[in-house]
Amino acid sequence: MRSVLVVFAHPHLESSRINRAMLQAAGTVPHVTVRDLYECYPDFYVDVAQEQALLRNHDVVVLQHPLFWYSCPALMK
């Protein structure tokens, strides 16, 4: 089975029904790791080495985020 990393970024998760439901569902699937960037880095200081290691250790990467002005949230960028 391939390992999947879901990199999730939503600055206002509490107000999102769809993204919150998708995030909760993804967390219940075997071989899926969910990484909530706004939970991990509320101060926006990203541990680059740790994030790179996560990317290397997974076969598939999924970027999940809402669209803001046809782009992703700031922390995802």
TrEMBL record:
Gene3D superfamilies, A to Z: 3.40.50.360
Domain of life of the organism encoding this protein: Bacteria
Keyword list, A-Z: Oxidoreductase
Matching InterPro entries: Flavodoxin_fold, Flavoprotein-like_sf, KefG/KefF
Limits of the Flavodoxin-like fold domain: 3-77
Entry keyword annotation includes Cell wall biogenesis/degradation: no
Protein name: Flavodoxin-like fold domain-containing protein
